[in-house]
Design brief:
564 residues; Immunoglobulin-like; six-stranded antiparallel β-sheet; 8 helices; transmembrane
Length: 564
């Protein structure tokens, strides 16, 4: 009789503990016989399923294979088995089995037990993982295990609830009734719902710090807020890429993930950057001239604070004379735990001083490809992928692409120096440019060939870049951020007086417009007075004295007549 009571108790607890996760509120158990054989060890197979957007209503777990359970297989999810026998015995001694189970589920939803019964394993391409040879008893006590999802895909709304199993576990029949069949192979089906806003395979890209750049409105480019950023040419800009690695990614010798960043013409990617005082040097010339000991690889890959090893290959853009594309690969079975994780990739790029960046916004695009279990890959953009493919397993096989949506461009302005009277072109006038917002002068660094390769600002007018009018009087200002400026004349042509500051705005197409119709800057000639010490001045002095003498003589004569 005592044996029968223990058996019934074990049956009730196993049903309740298994069903509490799948079908909360199970209320009755039928009477069963006690002539079944309890195995010494059991195998537990977890079948991981994922559902689009919302987890469906609870479904009874039978303990056997359920081919019609629904959802899609979710590979590369980690599960770990823990032994909580002592805790369960302690909990159940002062409460019901249902309350004890609920307490342990609540406790370990966001915590980890101390006693590991089976180390973490990842689900395979079918979403399955099996833990073999788990003990049924320890001495006279039946074992209680809890199975936790210890590695979850980044696109999952919420990881699966803990699964509590108290041995022995009994099977259900087709009508959902418990049987006397003790299971030696136990099958459980935890569920997850996918986050539509953070779906697997999603890739996004951001220009991290845009606060130091000028902006201009430019519609029709697909830019955020229709805004084009206008940085100094040659200034290093930090980009951050977030990639949700599909859980179905297969990492092997020649498979894994590939990320290609192709900025397009005008944006250049250096292979290395210089770090000083914990910060990346922000201009390319200073980087090229930096101490080699301060250099590090430009592209960095991390999960949290953990650095991930990746192979990065740069391709030279011969037209622009710099590296403007990189391909990043992560392969190998030792990277299998990256499946389902979120990678953060950071790197620096700069807008080059080339015609392609002059009034021609260029964005920075990126593409990610994952070798997945589906064996099919479809090239599409992010929006089309999210709207047209509903299942996570299909999404995982898609080649994803995105842009920073913050195009970069610079502009310019053209002036013509002319004589104020004749309108003749004047050569040799010298000017500097003052940035009104920055309250500083424009300074371009030069390379060994004398080319102006990057722009800075300086408060010292003597260090500012000097623009000189040519034989046609033209003053060409190129590769300036869109902003308000003043043209400051520092040296007038020979024989002319310096003019005042000229206010102007570099904006969309201002370079092209003023190239065809340059804004005139006029200079007046100096006066005709001879220089000090010449003979001409004496002529004027003598004439003045003669006039004064004549006036005095006339005055004397008038006074004499009045006195008569």
């Amino acid at each position: 009789m005592e044996v029968m009571k223990n058996k019934l108790k074990a049956i009730f607890m196993s049903i309740l503990l298994l069903a509490s996760i799948i079908v909360p509120g199970l209320a009755s158990v039928k009477s069963v016989s006690a002539d079944e054989t309890i195995p010494d060890k059991v195998n537990v197979t977890v079948h991981k399923r994922v559902f689009d957007s919302e987890t469906p209503a609870p479904t009874q777990n039978t303990g056997n294979i359920m081919s019609d359970f629904g959802g899609d297989a979710l590979p590369n999810v980690g599960f770990t088995v823990y032994d909580i026998t002592d805790e369960y015995i302690k909990e159940v001694s002062g409460s019901t089995a249902e309350d004890a189970t609920a307490a342990l589920v609540e406790k370990y939803t966001n915590a980890t037990p101390a006693n590991v019964a089976a180390d973490q394993k990842l689900t395979d391409k079918n979403g399955d993982v099996t833990f073999s040879g788990l003990d049924t008893k320890a001495g006279n006590e039946f074992k209680t295990y809890i199975i936790l999802e210890t590695k979850s895909p980044s696109a999952i709304v919420e990881k699966a609830a803990p699964i509590v199993l108290t041995m022995p576990v009994y099977a259900y029949d087709a009508n959902g009734q418990v049987t006397t069949n003790v299971l030696s192979d136990i099958h459980v089906y935890p569920k997850n719902a996918e986050n539509n806003d953070n779906y697997e395979g999603k890739i996004s890209k951001e220009l991290v710090d845009d606060t130091v750049h000028h902006h201009t409105n430019w519609t029709g480019l697909g830019a955020i807020n229709d805004t084009v950023l206008s940085p100094r040419v040659g200034r290093l800009l930090q980009y951050e890429v977030t990639y949700h690695v599909p859980s179905s990614t297969i990492f092997a010798e020649n498979s894994g993930i590939e990320i290609v960043d192709d900025p397009g013409v005008g944006i250049v990617l250096p292979e290395q950057v210089a770090v000083e005082n914990g910060k990346v040097v922000d201009t390319i010339v200073d980087t090229l001239n930096a101490d080699p000991a301060t250099l590090r690889d430009n592209v960095q890959v991390k999960i949290g604070d953990k650095v991930i090893n990746a192979t990065v290959k740069y391709e030279e853009d011969r037209q622009e004379g710099g590296n403007s594309k990189f391909t990043l690969n992560i392969t190998g079975a030792d990277n299998a735990d990256l499946a389902g994780e979120t990678l953060v990739i950071t790197y620096y790029a700069y807008l080059a001083k080339t015609e392609s960046s002059l009034d021609n916004p260029v964005d920075n695009s990126i593409t990610a490809t994952a070798d997945t279990t589906s064996g099919e890959q479809v090239s599409t953009d992010e929006t089309a992928t999210q709207n047209s493919i509903s299942l996570l397993a299909s999404r995982a096989a898609v080649v994803m692409a995105d842009q920073a949506h913050k195009p970069l461009a610079v502009g310019g302005y053209n002036f013509k120096k002319v004589d104020a009277q004749s309108n003749a072109a004047l050569a040799g006038a010298q000017f500097v440019v003052y940035d009104v917002k920055q309250k500083a002068y424009v300074q371009f660094n030069q390379d060994n060939a004398g080319n102006r390769t990057e722009q800075k600002w300086t408060s010292d007018i003597n260090k500012a870049t000097v623009y000189t009018s040519d034989e046609k009087g033209m003053i060409e200002l190129e590769y300036l951020p869109y902003a308000d400026y003043e043209l400051v004349e520092v040296k007038a042509p020979e024989g002319y007086v310096k003019g005042g500051n000229v206010e102007f705005t570099v904006e969309r197409d201002s370079y092209k417009t003023t190239k065809a119709n340059p804004v005139e800057v006029k200079n007046a000639k100096k006066g005709l007075l001879p220089s000090t010490g010449g003979y001409g001045i004496y002529i004027f002095l003598l004439a003045g004295l003669a006039l004064m003498a004549g006036a005095y003589a006339w005055f004397r004569r008038v006074n004499k007549n009045d006195n008569v």
